[in-house]
Amino acid sequence: QVQLVESGGGLVQAGGSLRLSCAASGSIFSTDTRGWYRQAPGNQRELVATITDGSTNYADSVKGRFTISRDNAKNTVYLQMNSLKPEDTAVYYCNVQKTWGLRKYDYWGQGTQVTVSS
After folding, report:
1. For the chain, how many helices (H) and strands (E)?
2. Of residues 54 and 74, which shows the higher confidence score?
């Protein structure tokens, strides 16, 4: 079983920065994909960034502004968000995806609110 706890959300002005953290407990391996997703009111949940071993992937909307990183010793993944825009306002969810053969299993945190004021 995997449990995820996010922290670091809040209210920030446009152009500001925030760093989100996601601490995981349970069976976490360096080969698991860790990621951040977000969901704004009325929208579907969307991928923000993922990291698998040393490989990262970003949504086009956050490239050059957000950086995902992980500390395997602490089972923690971070999302550094710079140059924030009002359209970044959303609930941000931490994700762990495990792959067993052809099956993928997703685990989610409870979400943390990020609000960017103009």
Report:
1. 0, 11
2. 74
